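Appendix B, Record 12. Input sequence as logged:
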Amino acid sequence: MHKSGFVNILGNPNVGKSTLMNALVGERLSIINSKAQTTRHRIMGIVNGDDFQIVYSDTPGILEPSYKLQESMMRSVRGAMSDADIILYVTDVTESADAASAGVVGKIAASGIRTILVINKIDLTTPEKLDELVALWHGRLPEARIVPVSAREGFNIGGLFDLVLKDLPEGEPFFPKDTLTDRTMRFFASEIIREKILRYYDKEIPYSVEIAIEEYHEEPAIDRISATIYVARDSQKGIIIGHKGAMLKKVGTAARGELEQFLGKKVFLQMHVKVNDDWRNSDRQLRRFGYEG
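Logged structural output:
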């Protein structure tokens, strides 16, 4: 008997969905950052065993869209709701049951899809408050199993994994057994650069930036990568570059270091900054950057 299925991770921004998927997969596939809306794409992480294949999907945080980029992000969330064998709905101890998206929770409850309600960050609360949250969520999603975890600390990740495996339907694997993700190295290179921009810049800058990998050449001892950082306005270009290029160099040094660790080899990284007016509201530009239309 072989089990396989899609286990899709949903929830509001900043509840720790990406940290949870990375913990379940055992690899750093999704950007982790304290800023909201860190995840823009649906990212699959695949866990294989002799008699199972679990295809996890990290998804963007649920929000009311303000521009076409966010509309695309929410389309990927709706897609993850419709094709899931199991839904992991993630909340945390700082988010009350009332603060969660009532519409999405209602759709999950009505979907009939096996659902596990994950209460994350339990290292930040008391047993009494956790019991209150469990009771609240049991009232909102009575059919869901409720699993408290701390993804950052690795607490009860094994218990969650066992429950997922138990609920997984029988079936053949969807991907070759040596596959870790559906994404390419070009994608991960762009995400690593974007993560450094999220880390080193604040306010609107990280949300106005998109990364395009123009060239990616693999050699035995080194990978050579050329990337363009697109911003929405001229003023943002100067902020990204910084005085005498200092900020761009800082981002490049940090990104190159993480890429080398990720790849296990040397990396030559070249970056440029260009203005792409209002790319977040352009269907053509969003398709170019790999977003769903």
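The chain has a mean pLDDT of 89.
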